[in-house]
Amino acid sequence: MNNLNRKTANITTKLPIKVVQFGEGNFLRAFVDYIIDRLNTDTGFNAGVAVVQPLNGGLIPLLNEQDGLYTLFMRGIKKGNIIDENRLISCIQKAINPYSDYDDYLALAQEESLEFLISNTTESGIAYDPSDTGFDSCPSSFPAKVTALLYKRFQHFNGASNKGLTIIPCELINYNAETLKGIILKYTADWNLGQDFMAWIEEHNSFHNTLVDRIVPGYPKDDIESYEEKLEYKDKLIVSAEIFLLWVIEGDEKLLAKIPFNKIDESILVVKDMQPYRNRKVRILNGAHTGFVTVALLHGNTTVKEAMDDSFMGSFIQKMVYDEIGRVLPMPKSEVDSFSEEVFDRFRNPFIKHLLASIALNSLSKFKVRVLPSLLAYSEKYGKLPVNLTFSLACLIRFYKGDWHGKQLPVQDDPQIVDFFAKIWKSDSYTEISQKVVSNKEFWGSDLSLTKGLVKAVADALQLIDAFGIEEAQKQLSEEMN
To answer: Is 242 helix (H, G, I), strand (E, B) or coil?
Structure first.
């Protein structure tokens, strides 16, 4: 079997460099490069990608060995149907390690066809590093590298208005583009690069906040033989991903005129404000995970798919999302329900083994951000507590006790939080336990015992859980609260 490269794959076409991509990891290759590849084949976008390694160590040697080629496997469930397909990705034209080939990196600034800069350097990548005091040699931080590239481009094209870049970061922080722009402007001032360059950054480069979502397990090392037998070549950079993807980008028709996202059938939304979509993802996808994880663990499930396939848990999760979380999101019901259906397909994906124990990490702080806003919004809107979200809170408290019928639960959190629960669970009073947790402002940012009926409902749920188990407890609490 031949090693994968452009010769063995019989690919002779060279694409102009339109995109500089910071990051060569699994996510960008399964997400952004896949989309660019589809734009090339489906719309004639004709965009080549130059990949830049953001850290001093990575996959650049392997990418160059395979001439930028690799195979993407996409597997999952879509509208109830199992999808299992693969695609040879060929949009990457060059791969550069700026730490060893700094001149090659800076030379990208001179590319006539360059229009876009895309990145995913992890959540910690968009950060200011005061040790970056210039760019005579390769800067350490990602924003400093971008500043150097933009300044070289500004110089080479004499500040031409049509040579600025469209900058689309994909790091998982809110307002990622605005944060990146602010740091670039700070380096511009620190390095005394001048008001003309600063004005060029502001006026002739566009920065677009984004939200990205796709589960990318990456290289399937534990099952590589089953992947390789589907190929006619040896590929060292196979990447696996789920079918679902979502890319929300703040922009307008000008952005779509540059890059025709709307001409391929993928969930790519160019919107004026991405915050409602971020809120939808946090409340429904992340909120559902956190909302059902402790319930499912106490019920005896071990994976997300197992919970979804369980008759009781599957019903619980759907009621929690459709009847409670979805009803307090300020978006059209059809849009919320459609997204929820996609989320459930993802939860049922037979190709991904998503352990509940890993989701349960730091559940308390996750509950505050992802689930509590829905519980409080429902209470305020309807004048009563949501049954399933309230039961979820009770299961969270019971989970932190640490044991369940003689078995140790996978509690992983700050030692102070674990110690707090160890102390309160010495009490025999469910009301006292509920009161101490619900009123803890350090946990929730406010005193939740002021929410009408919450202390009693949680205490009742805790008593029912210990007396009857999860399924019967939820049933009796529902009858009691309704």
So the answer is: coil
What is the spatial distance between Cα 156 and Cα 288, in angstroms, rounded to a whole number?
A: 50
26-51 pLDDT per residue, tens: 999 999 999 999 999 999 999 999 99
Q: What is the CATH number of domain 275-481?
A: 1.10.1040.10
What Cα–Cα distance (Å) separates residue 223 from each residue in 76, 82, 227, 405?
Answer: 16, 19, 7, 35
Task: Report the C-alpha gap between 470 and 474 in whole angstroms.
Answer: 6
The amino acid present at 329, given as its one-letter code, is L
Residue pair 27/216 in contact (Cβ under 8 Å)? The answer is: yes
Torsion angle, CA of 450/452/456/460, rounded to 10 degrees? -130
Architecture of domain 17-271: 3-Layer(aba) Sandwich (3.40)
Task: Please state the pTM of the whole predicted model.
Answer: 0.90
Torsion, Cα of 203, 183, 214, 413 (10° steps) = -150
109-120 burial code (b ≥16 CB/10 A, e <16): bebeebbbbbbb
CB atoms within 10 A of CB 263: 15
3-state SS assignment for residue 369:
helix
3-state secondary structure of 404: strand
Q: Nearest-CA neighbor of 112 among 52, 181, 160, 51?
A: 160
Is residue 288 a contact partner of residue 68, using CB atoms and an 8 Å limit? Answer: no
Give per-residue pLDDT as tens, 405-428. 999 999 999 999 999 999 999 999
Domain extents for the chain?
Answer: 17-271, 275-481
**Could you tell me how many residues make up the chain?**
482
CB atoms within 10 A of CB 411: 21
Residue with tokens 């519980």: 375
Strands 70-78 and 246-250: unpaired
List Cβ neighbours of 149 (8 Å cut-off, separation of 6 or more): 20, 105, 106, 108, 109, 117
Q: Residue 386 CA to chain centroid, in angstroms?
A: 27
